[in-house]
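[audit] Reproducing an earlier prediction to check determinism. Same input, same settings, fresh worker. If the tokens differ from the archived copy the diff job will pick it up downstream; this log only records the rerun itself.
[audit] input (334 residues):
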Amino acid sequence: MSGSIRDRLRRFTTSVEQSDDLSPAQRAAILNGYEEALGTEGPPRLVLIGEAGVGKSTTVNALFNAGQAVGHSRATTDRAWTIPVQEVSGSNGTLEVVDMPGLGDDIANYRRYLALYREVLPTADAIVWIHPAKDRMVHLVQQALADIFGPSPELVGRLVFGLNKADEMGPHDWNAHANLPSEQQRAALRDREEDFTRRIARVLPGWRGRAVSYAALRFYNLTALFKEMMYAVPEQRRWVLEQRMALADFTTLVDRKLLRAATATTLAEVPAGDPEPPAPPQPVRDQWQPSGPNPSGSVADALAALSDAQWRDLYSDRSRFEEFVRRVERGNGR
């Protein structure tokens, strides 16, 4: 994440270490105070809301590389726990997560749970409400939002809505090889996000976010979800959350053959002799646009035709990778 708070903190440390205007003792005092401030700042607290089986624990694992046990048969605990997070940057941190009981688990518990929500939510840096992407029945969510946030409108800004299990969205033709939604699924997910956002705004007109569809098990669209979480966290606490980010890479679930085809480099021996005159300049085009019809009709072949530089740029940016696959599929008539 370019220009991130983490980068700014790193640049601050480097500038102090390299400053010629400070004595060694002054540099040491500043850096020691900086490290002490980092150590005394409390870990970020996320409150997760959603019915049993919606993927709350899986979402935490995908966002923060937490390795938390995932329960598939019963509701997750409703108490707070501290999760040790191993960051890919090499620094370590902890994340406090409160997995709230689902308000729809049992109507007999609804009022008691409301009291619990009103007690816990003010302690959150971000409130992440997770809902199945394919489930259009949101009237219970709307009712709960009105009951919880009506008396506490100051908490609305901390709300994030994630629509998990995007891969299960109709017409159920997820591109497993590229680990991306099909063209039809992508359109359905976009419509679903817009519809869900409108419905939430009806009961919470002060909410300014947007619902994000993602797939925790497939590591899909985690960056967009995390961005919404960053917006929701109070500004003075955003660096604490960002410092612990360790998003799972969705390309780890891309078909190995496809990736090998794209990364393989073919070296051709060229006979010695007079060099050929340079080719005339070609018209400039989008460097990720497939150059023409793909004879084999496969994304793997289209990727394999890319230069090393083009592949590196494409591989490092999920949105570009997704756009490339979509263009190839369109060119093949799908």
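[audit] rerun output stored. Observation attached for the diff report: Residues 72-92, 265-274, 276-288, 290-297 have pLDDT under 50 and may be disordered.
[audit] end
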